[in-house]
Amino acid sequence: MSLTYFAPHSSLLATLMVQQFIEWLKEHLNRETFPSCKWKDKEQESFEILWPRADRASCNDQANKKERLGIMYLWYVHKFGNSRLNDEATAIKGNFRSCLNSKISNGEMENLSPRSSRSGGQEEWKVYRFINKKEKSTDCDSALIPLL
Question: Which of 65, 77, 95, 147 is the most exposed place for a label (fewest CB within 10 A)?
Answer without folding.
Answer: 147
